[in-house]
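Quick illustration for those who missed Monday's session on complexes.
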Amino acid sequence: MVAANGFWAPGAQILWQYKSPRGLPWIDPMTVVQDDSNGLVAWLAAGTETLQAQRPDGSDLRADRSKLFSGDRVGVRRPWKDHDVLRVSPTGKRWSVWLCWDCNTREFKGWYGNLEAPLRRDGDMVLTRDHTLDLLVAPDRRHGRKDEDELAIARSVGWYTQGEVDEILDAAAELEAVIEVWGSPFCDGWEDFKPDPSWPLPALPNRYHDRPSEHG
Ligand code: MG
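Prediction with magnesium ion bound:
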């Protein structure tokens, strides 16, 4: 439910979708923590049923990384595992910052800078495209890039233009500069966040079913 000011109220349930022009959607049902002109903060609890993608034979997309951006893929409903995640998406940025906790011990495991297109909103959804390259930031603030090899593979098969790759690398440098000065959202204390225990797990709507006949 969107309030009169155009933002979601805390506790609202939304769908956060990643989709590439040639890929299947990945959809995470999430609960809004905070939403205002500064950006969106939302919670993804371990155990939430999500829409992910896999090979038609059931294998993981990364089983053969050289084919990560080619070959058939199918959608599958699957629970989010291992970590509870808080996503912080500052308005207009080419990244969101994910805070990750071990879902069993509640130990804070660090930040994950997910490079992606600035969020768009549509009804109860936020829409973006994952940009393959990620940044890992440990609890001691050491950081590094993840999946540079996958970005190179993606470029080689035309998943991105060179201009798009340059944009992604520029966004990575921008986020690294924020990390270096420990700017927002890293300095905002989100690592002390605790979800409202009364929040039910948001459901993945039935319209997202297993194995659509669409190819990635
Ligand atoms: Mg990513």
